[in-house]
Amino acid sequence: MHDRAETLAATGAVVVGYDEHPVSLRALDWAADEAVRSARPLVVVHATGGLGTVGSTWLELTDPATEPTLIELERHGQAVLARAVAHVGLRHPSLRISPQVAMGEPAPELLRQTASAHLVVVGSRGHGVSRSIPSGQVGTWLARRTAGPVVVVPDYNPLTVRQGVLVGVPIGEDVATVLDFAFRHASLHDLPLTVVHATKDATSTADIDRPRHLSEALGGLAERFPEVRIRSELVPGRPARTLLRLAERMNLLVVGQHTATGLHELPMGHVRASIVDRAPCPTAVVPTHVPEPA
User: What is the mean predicted confidence (pLDDT) over 203-227?
Assistant: First the structure.
């Protein structure tokens, strides 16, 4: 089972982390829908968290005085994955699914998968990612280090009528891969695309040429994806706050690593959260540079 899942991931599967938390179920559904739409296999990963950690739901259901064995953890993981496969199979009976039990911490395991998977999907909350990574910050942890696209799915209502794909474009940075991902997703799902550049001072000299730069960035992709309906906007305001506000009515928010993990704009008490921790819709984080080490 484990070797098979790794083979699928290497061929460009959609990989999703799953632990039976309600938000994890949202992520599973999103990943399954994406795998079907993109004609790719789905790899469902359940990481046990290892012995003595809080990484597995199973540990919350057992006697805290009893240390689980590796065999018990693997059996529990297999049972969790069997339920996940059955759930997906009801909606997508023909989807190729490979379950994988990983004997370790979820976040590092999912990070490893980003090197070869087409896409890695994770819920924005969980029962516990590791001793050092709070469950509400797994998206940021992965986004900073990922070698490939990561989608963070929040607890949202997927049945709400939404307005397509939103991509944040910081002028002056290399955003080719970010825009390419956004255009491909919009094309695949037949959704309109809104391209936004938020600027704090629209009257500054540096901002005068921004419409031209934005148009140049979109030109080639608009020709490659003529079926995608595009709307580009220069919006006054702080980038993170602007994107979060606009994302409330979107199917997907697409951002680069730097934008996704910028922590200076969103105070949350004594913690400062990134876009992926707070986004009201699924958020795709696309690498634009060499990621941070794990």
Answer: 73
pLDDT of 30: 97
Name the pairing type of β-strands 193-199 and 119-123. Answer: unpaired
Q: Phi/psi at 16 (nearest 5 deg)?
A: -130, 135
CA nearest neighbour of 37 among 147, 160, 191: 191
More confident residue, 270 or 183: 183
What is the pLDDT averaged over residues 27-49? 95
The closest of 4, 29, 26, 31 to 15, measured between CA atoms, is 31
CA distances from 34 to 95, 120, 220, 282 (A): 11, 11, 25, 12
Which is higher by pLDDT, 14 or 219?
Answer: 14
Please name the helix (run of DSSP H) or strand (run of DSSP E) that holds residue 278, with its range, or none. Answer: helix 275-278
In angstroms, rounded to a whole number, what is the distance separating the alpha carbons of residues 243 and 247? 6
Domain ranges of the chain: 2-153, 165-286
Contact 73, 102 (CB under 8 A): no
Task: Name the DSSP letter for residue 12.
Answer: T
Longest CA span, the chain:
66
CATH for the 2-153 domain, from 3.40.30.10, 1.10.8.60, 3.40.50.620, 3.40.225.10: 3.40.50.620
DSSP-derived secondary structure for 94-144: T--EEEEEESS-HHHHHHHHTTT-SEEEEES--S-S-SSS-GGGHHHHHHH
Q: Minimal CA–CA distance to 166: which of 191, 201, 138?
A: 191
Q: Is the pLDDT of residue 65 over 70?
A: no
* pLDDT(99) > 90: yes
Q: Is the CATH number 3.40.50.12370 carried by domain 165-286? A: yes
Note whether 166 and 154 are within 8 A (CB): no
Domains 2-153 and 165-286 share a fold: yes
